[in-house]
Amino acid sequence: MTFLPLIGAALILCVVGLRASGLVPKAMADQIHRVIALAASSAVLVLAFVLWRGFDPDNPGVQFVQHARWITAYNIEYFVGVDGISITLIMLTALISFIATIASMPWWPGNAHLDEHHFTQRGVAGYMAMLLILQTGMMGVFVALDMFLFYVFWEVMLLPMYFLIGIWGGSRKEYAAIKFFLYTLAGSVLMLLAIIGLYFNGPQEVVDGRLVHSFNILKMAQWGRAGGYLAAPLVLGFTFVRAAWIALFIGFAIKIPMFPFHTWLPDAHVEAPTPISVILAGILLKMGIYGILRVNFAILPQATKWAAPAMATFGAINIVYAAFVCLAQKDLKRMIAYSSVSHMGFCLLGMSAFTQQGIDGAVLNLWTHGLISPMLFLIAGVIYDRAHHRNIEGFGGLAQQVPEYAGLMGLAFFASLGLPGLCGFVSEFTVFLGSLVRWQTLTILSAVSVIVTAAYYLWAIQRMMLGKLNPQYSTLPDVNWRERLTLYPLGALIIVFGFYPQAIFTLIEGSLRNLLLPLQ
Amino acid sequence: MEHADNIARAIEVSWLWLIPAFPLLGAALNGLFGARLQKRYGKPAVHTIAVGAMVLSCLVAEAVLWGKIFGAAPSDRFLENHLWTMWQSGALKVDLSFGIDPLGMVMTMIVTHVATLIHVYSVGYMADEPSYWRFFFWLNLFVFAMLLLVMGSNFLVMFFGWEGVGLCSWGLIAFWYTDLEKAKAGFKAFIVNRFGDFGFIIGLFILFWSLSGSWSSSGKYLPERRLSGRVLGTFAEPARLSQNGVRLGPTVEFRELRNQVVDEKSGVAERLSHMQLWGVPVLALICILFFVGAAGKSAQIPLYVWLPDAMAGPTPVSALIHAATMVTAGVYMVARLNFLFALSSAAMSVVACIGVLTALFAASIGFFQYDIKKVLAYSTVSQLGFMFIGVGVGAYWAGIFHLMTHAFFKACLFLGSGSVILACHHEQDMRKMGGLAKYTPITRWTYLIACVTIAGFPVASAFYSKDEILWKAWTAGSLAAPWLGQAIYLVGAIAALGTSYYMFRSYYMTFTGEYRGGSGHKDKERLEDPHSMAAHVHAHASALAHGEDGAQVAASTQPHQHDASHGAGPDPHHGGVPHESPKSMTYVLIALAAASILAGFIFGLPSAWTGQEPLLERFLAPSLPAAELVKFHEEPHATEFLFQLVGGVVIAGGGWLVARILYKDARSTAPARLKEMFPRVWALVYNKYYVDEIYQATVVRGALLLDRVAYWFDQNVIDSLVNFIALLGRAVAYFDKFIDEHLVDGAVNGIADLTLNGGRALRRLQTGHIQSYLYGALGGAIAFVILQYVIR
Lengths: 520, 792
What we know:
By secondary structure, chain A is mainly alpha-helical. Chain A is 71% helix and 5% strand.
């Protein structure tokens, strides 16, 4: 119902965009492409808002379901719907995509700093089309309730991302793109194997008079909860549920990214153009956690219980290890990228405690990190567009020259380091509260990161913004209107959700409680 | 259902939120539009907003005090204002709500009133600051955060304020951020406080869970099913009530927690007292973790190091944040949680011992400092130590009383030092002062009054508060060891002696003898920012000086004239005769000095004198239910009089006498000789026992080393592994290609084709060939499907 226009719009507009490029002059075509992309992503934002208004938070099940037969031979369906977890991520996707689209516009008074090599000026049609396809893929992942459909969307999302980094990226873009692609693909292969295993060992039903297996996630979850997968044959010496769990988990963990599969992320971020970093950090990383909840937790609760200590340990390693790595960074964007690794660790730690607070905090963290990290990358983009480098130590005293930028940077940094009153704190606090009860040592170790995180952010502010003004930057312009359009909404939402995160908790709590019931 | 008396019931007052709202509004206006306002309408627009917001906030606080608190019976003095539920996750329900009980009322009054005075003072002090609006933005925001801290009805709102004041402290210490040293001082303050916050939140977590279950000896959580719900952390509905109608189960609300613990029928206190975690009584653990938080904010050993550096901020900031309000937050928190601390004699002993050690330690560092603000900073650390003795031994009201008197006299001292610093043209070194009594009479008298107060002479308020604390320490009966209280008394008495000495030392060095500044100062000695507050104040002040002392006109006009151009560039010859500060500053000094004297008579005349409990103790009683649990030895009034005599006359007088002999009029050469006789000791104390250096060598170095190791590991181990695997893949592809071309020799089959394409893609990193990977993935999947069928 709501998703047909959404996906359709994105796809059709891509085609239109591609067509138009041949018929009209290049400059005009570029503008048309931009307008189309902007219109499409704002339409999606509006629709997501409508969806949210129509969503009933008291119903923990899936809503707005759409069913259609797709590949009857294997009983594959086009089956979509949303529950409390996916609705939050859909809103996030719509919002961040919209902001990323604005950030892809070359609107800059006088265009003084924009040459034709700037990413917003090169291959506009392709870029905008890729952006829209990417958006479709992301939305699809969050609404899909058929395992096959889920996998298809998962892969759909991969390709545009590869091209967006590989074509519009920085100096080492090819290396970063191929690393990203191969890494994620390796995960996808494991995932696919596990999905096929789940299919063949899963529930059967009669369709058109034939007894067939089903890719339906809800049915699989029911089957898994009832212990249906426990009877499956051993795989490589592991029981089937554990083997499938590990394969799926690695597939998702690469996306999170979890230590030790995280090294693609800093490279991808550093090379990607700003809006792509925004999407990468704001949405793509969330898919790993979403997948673990939707597949591992829901379908394989027995194995999830078994693997909880490992999840918690990796979560804690992510948090602390990446925080220390951040402290050593000289490149602003690389530091922010590692901070994402650190903050995504909160999700793993919180989920693995199987408490209401832990898992609520983990999902809220998807939302809050989804607001904060795009803002951080936009902040990094602002300075890169002007100074053409991101070396933290190459600045100094900028607060005098660009006070508005300094204020926004302060807001984003303090949000990320978990200052109460800004939304990062809420998820951090709730996760730690939930996880302490089960993982005391790990939680206390992880909580040390609040000190380290404060240290690297404040240190970065100090080195870039405070002290005597570096004379090299005495003419640096402050943020312009396009950047304000992207930064202020995020900043406002960060404050709003710092004082009223209940808007999200209301949506997710019921669905997550259902997820936890078989785990205790 | 029968209600026990000691259960606190809330009365909803829907307008309490106005108190913090006004400063927030002021901060928002100045933060968003301040720069433009200042440009268009001048500085008065900025400070009208800021001071106006504070006055309104004060008025509302007064209205609460007179209308809602005094008008009500003691049991009806728990006001609450619930705004909205910020978040709820299972049993965790976090409301944005304010609560004012007598304790909160005292704190709110101190914060709003002292802050208003300091705002007024800042109008004069900061008059020449170009970023005037930014200063008042931070100052208003600070008051807002501080009010969240003292008015928050639960741990979370308190923690919002707790970190909020830390943020503002960072912003204000680093206010003159162009000087990197000041920026670093702000950084240090924030990070050291984060160590404390870490303790705070871990303590809160353990407390939260201990309310709905217990812990096994291995640390495993054993939930009490009726309280923890079906999924761990959700409530079982309906929540269980005690016989007295107190809702049980985990909570973060102070009042609910208090009721659970105070209500004997609930059994919570009993259960908590017997609970252990990691072999430690859980209550002691919780309280000590909270105290770690308090030690961070209130600058106690071992986390006090940030406070002396925090003096890099403008002096009004030092007075407001680093003396009167923010640093007392830890004391307030311990008093707020009195019902928990009173149940654990171990925690009480830790608090009292750390307090007394800090009091002595910091006082001894104060002996030899030359920077007037540093002396006051260490004095603050030391006085906070006294407050912790009070709340540690169980004399909660006395700790809060000292907090209140300290807010007055220390604010007066700091603002006085600000006036002195201005008078001496941004000189902070006391060796370059002297003889200021003649030039700055109002500052001199107010400073002297405050010194008399802090030293503890019986005419002024600190006598009543400090001696009450020490007396309670002497008679304390609830500490871990019976002799501990007396030991604390003795050490505390020495610290008090030291206090009297170093305060009068600073007075004599600054105000007596001959003025030693005169020729101005060099750049490196400028501790306050050179651009900050030069011309306007000086011009204003010189006008004052002319009026008062005609003989000085000739002398003072000349040097002051170039003050007007002072902001424009470095001025090595800046100097001249000291001058008194403008009226907006001196009036504030007079008000605070008066409060320093009077607070003692009004609030805290000892019961041994009047026969009834002091006003403040009676007023605070509903908030401090644990005061009845804590035991003190009965001692005859005669003994108490004796102790007061010792405290008020011998200790205060002794310190004063030594300081007078050594430092009055800078005549005695004894200080210099003593310094030569014990150079090692002097250097050790002067360098603050090298604690900063030790931290630098251990904690800071350790962290920096660790981050480099982690990054090295990331780049050279993990990433290398990834690249190695990629290399391996390429090698296999090349190998396959070799086999393909030379052995299979043109025989086309699907798998070889696949590897060939893969090899090319990897070798050239070309974008076009990536589809083959998708084919590969699909091919593998299909192979797996087929395999599955075959196996079956």
